[in-house]
Amino acid sequence: MKPLLGTFYLLGMLVPGWLGYDRSLTQQRQEVVDKVVSPWSILETYSYNRYHPMGEIYQWMSEIREKYTEVVTQHFLGMTYESRPMYYLKISQPSSNPKKIIWMDCGIHAREWIAPAFCQWFVKEILQNYEDNSRIRRLLKNLDFYVLPVFNIDGYIYTWTTDRLWRKSRSSHNNGTCFGTDLNRNFDASWCSIGASHNCESLTFCGTGPMSEPETKAVSSFIESKKENIACFLTMHSYGQLILVPYGYTKNKSNNHEELIQVGQKAANALKAKHGTNYRVGSSADILYATSGSSRDWARDIGIPFSYTFELRDNGTYGFVLPETQIQATCEETMEAVLSVLDDVYEKYWYTNSARKAKSTALVLGLLMSFMSLL
Amino acid sequence: MQLRRQPLSAPRPGDTRPAAQRLAVPLLLLLALQGAAASGGPEDSGWLQDAEPSSRLLSQAARAALHFFNFRAASPSALQVLANVLDGRSWVNQKKEYKFDLVFTTEFYSAEEGEKRLGKCSAQVFFRNEKPRPAVNVTCTQLVKKERRQEEDYQLYKLMKQLKSPLNAVSIPDSHGYIAPSLRPIWDLAFLGSSYVMWQKSTPFLHYYMSQISSVKQWKTNDDAIDFDYTVLLHEFSTQEIIPCRIHLVWYPSKPLKVKYHCQERQTPEEASGTEEGSAVALTELSNF
């Protein structure tokens, strides 16, 4: 199985990479190529404090699945423009309990390297601690985590081989003279109405139509198929230190806006308590800029109640090129924020039910007591 | 705070003032409107105060003010970045000119992890016709004593003089965000030069960050000053574009910074692309740019 996987990785990685070969970045490409097929386990020495090329992330995913086989499964979502497979990891404690889904994706924009780093960190934290950490154990009783570590795989690879500050996908347009769609402008949420461009040259090119890109199609059709059960949709970006709620395409607010802000603010407070980092909370249109076709807005509009965009560190000092020395602190504080959101989501669906039962029992008892006293 | 409009006085019923007087007031107001553009008072010139200034707009104005401050201070060891806007008011008029009155806190650009000394600045920022290069009036509390700042600048200068040209660095920082300690002064000096460019290019709607130095063309230190010719990649936040700018600066500690730059704009909204000369001091000796 492994040699087959290895060949598959090689094909998936080398062929497109060859086409984008750049002599001045020989060393980086060499890393990408070398790390693709490793007969040895990388999990033993995998550093979550470093950035990893896509080949290593693919390998990491399959080793995670093999090591934590009782709770982890790996699933195929679809193919990227350059024909690479998109996989998500499902973390689920087998039980007869009804479950709600928490979706997290990272790296929809290629240059935001800290985001895929956080997705990997998140998976590691859950899996290393779910057995003896009561908070995580509780969450896993009724929540399943679906994690897509890299959304824009072609773009991510491109930032390793050719252009560190590439943002979009690598789809070809205008007869091969222009590349890339901004995947976070490609969703069917007031598509291309504002804050996006019909011009392929633009970094906010919305694509040739809503959901025109294979990556967008892959994720959206999956989410659509599970939407009744998805309680929370988290999409991780950088930079800016923001927790964003809908909408970007209008200043109007979602019907649960107050609740989203409250939960978001609580998460920002938990984040700040860790290392003192300040995050602001608000709707995209209010505190960031107008955008249309974003995955978060689309998720909210199809009915997923808790839909957030996280813009991770920093505030512009290093921007997209966040030093590896900051990965740990960033991931630790972001973990606190995400767990805070998950606690709130959990309480909304399960604590409320049991609290309601307790309240109604108390009410009935109270009524009985007053009846008795009247007799 | 309610939106306040300057009412043009009109004759009210029962107004028995003579005609000449009724004319005088509107005439005076007209004169006030003409002349008040630069005087800054909120009550004149058709300025509408924003009842709820957007925090984003205030932050952008504060950043523009800080770019100007950093350029003027010309001190690579004491560069400041925006921490928080404490208080801000904004006005706009019919000519689409924007005015800001701000109080904000700052941090050291080169702050070590955990070092959190905050400075405080107050600034007035004026954008004409949504155009870049705002007029800035800014004062900041002294985070570091002048002597110490000059000493640290001089230390930086000595370190930089020891660096041999040609510098082999291609990208600073590298893809992983790493800056070799010996190259750190280069990054700081590049940020100083970029501050000038970012101030020049900031509008109420466009604001910039320095992403990476993509190449170093020239690094000379003859006749004492540091002569630095490099290309920097600026990140414009609202369009998400990466804009390469070729910058040529000359720096000597405690002297004003001399800068020339040329940015490659792919899309040209209102500003014309092309070479723009900068700096108040003539760069006659840098003729090979």
Automatic annotation (TrEMBL), chain A:
- Tell me a Gene Ontology molecular-function term this record carries: zinc ion binding
Q: What does this protein do?
A: Carboxypeptidase which preferentially cleaves C-terminal acidic residues from peptides and proteins. Can also cleave C-terminal hydrophobic amino acids, with a preference for small residues over large residues.
Residues forming the Peptidase M14 domain are: 50-345
Q: Where is the signal peptide?
A: 1-20
Q: What family does the Swiss-Prot or TrEMBL record give for this protein?
A: Belongs to the peptidase M14 family.
Could you tell me what this protein is called?
Carboxypeptidase O
Output the Pfam families linked to this UniProt entry: Peptidase_M14
**How does the record classify its membrane topology?**
Lipid-anchor; GPI-anchor
Alphabetical list of SMART domains matching this protein: Zn_pept (SM00631)
CDD domains in the record = M14_CPO
Among InterPro entries, the record links this protein to:
CARBOXYPEPT_ZN_1 (IPR057246), Carboxypeptidase_O (IPR033850), Peptidase_M14 (IPR000834)
- Catalytic residues, chain numbering: E311
Which coenzyme or cofactor does it need? Zn(2+)
Keyword terms of this UniProt record: Carboxypeptidase, Cell membrane, Glycoprotein, GPI-anchor, Hydrolase, Lipoprotein, Membrane, Metal-binding, Metalloprotease, Protease, Signal, Zinc
Where, if anywhere, are coiled coils annotated? none
Subcellular localization(s) per the UniProt record = Apical cell membrane
**GO terms for CC?**
apical plasma membrane; extracellular space; side of membrane
What Gene Ontology terms for biological process does this UniProt record contain?
A: proteolysis
TrEMBL record, chain B:
Q: Which domain of life is it from?
A: Eukaryota
Q: What is this protein called?
A: Cystatin LXN-type domain-containing protein
**The keyword Oxidoreductase belongs to this UniProt entry's keyword annotation:** no
Any one GO CC term of the record: extracellular space
Q: Which GO terms describe its molecular function?
A: metalloendopeptidase inhibitor activity
Cystatin LXN-type domain mapped to chain residues:
47-148, 168-271
Keywords, ordered alphabetically: Protease inhibitor, Repeat, Signal
What the entry lists under Pfam families is as follows: LXN
InterPro entries recorded = CYSTATIN_LXN (IPR049897), Cystatin_sf (IPR046350), Latexin (IPR009684), TIG1 (IPR027261)
Q: Does the keyword Signal apply?
A: yes
UniProt-listed PROSITE patterns? CYSTATIN_LXN (PS52033)
- SUPFAM superfamilies the record matches: Cystatin/monellin
GO BP, one annotated term: negative regulation of cell population proliferation
Which range is the signal sequence, renumbered to this chain?
1-38
